[in-house]
């Protein structure tokens, strides 16, 4: 992998999309992938997570874990090896402009080569929320596959370097 030690899912208010995405990631990602958290770019005061998030997660047997209230993304949350996946392009710009961080900052769509932003559904039709959940879960599976591929790609690169070193030593000996 590129050495990510943490992945942060970021949305504007951290009350719907990013906590939902974080919970799906935690549920589906193998333990060896980086730990995750979710944060918001505009959290003026802590608010409870949208109750529809808990309903969606529990209907899919996923635990929201300890994320009950929205939290502001702060510079202290971000290390050199943190992967930041924002729900929208405007969230990405806000992270870059407000926190001065541009390394490893992508929209979730950019990261999986899908240009679509993830916007919170605001509709009384409950079936739209289920559809939203399924679409987001599919995107998170692609994120996980992408991270696994990066890990194995770098693993293979390390093996190639070690093999080249061994081959050059063999040539020196003969």
From TrEMBL:
Residues 159-174 have a biased composition (Basic and acidic residues). Residues 5-150 form the Phosphotyrosine protein phosphatase I domain. This is Phosphotyrosine protein phosphatase I domain-containing protein. It holds the Pfam family LMWPc. Residues 154-174 are annotated as: Disordered. It comes from Butyribacter intestini. InterPro entries: Ptyr_pPase, Ptyr_pPase_sf.
